[in-house]
Design a protein that fits this description.
CATH superfamily: Hotdog Thioesterase
Number of strands: 8
Structural class: alpha+beta
Radius of gyration: 15 Å
CATH class: Alpha Beta
Largest sheet: 6 strands, antiparallel
Helix content: 10-25%
CATH topology: Thiol Ester Dehydrase, Chain A
Strand content: 35-45%
Number of helices: 2
Distance between the termini: 20 Å
Order of helices and strands: HEEEHEEEEE
Amino acid sequence: MNEFTVHELLAHSGYMMLLDKIVKFDEQSMVAEVIVRYDGLFGDEKAVPALVGIEYMAQTIAAHGSMMDKIAQRPAYLGFLLGTRAYTSNVDCFITGTVLTVTVEKIIQEQGLGVFDCKITALGVLVEAKLNVYQPDSAKNRVLSE
């Protein structure tokens, strides 16, 4: 199995790097871990709003795309979150220090457009959504070296 850190897979940096670890992946899916933390960007010392889960999901999708590009030795390109459908959460917030498991599974991907079924789980936590993403194939959009 190819091993890359989240820092090697994502263009994010600093406080916007929200993923902590890639747990597993295959051509259709990825599982990542997030340790909910307070860093002054989202929420407060006790909790982060559950809507931040959309960004956890989006970063996991981006990491999956980057992993597939690296394995295929293709150049990597920035992707864009187009929208979220059917976002449901059984919690209003994620408690600081909680380890969340973020699972994304590709439903369809054609001509740069993709739909992913996403889930965030932890003890007492279940968040689900479908995310629509777009990754244009353009040299102007390239973010990582070949």
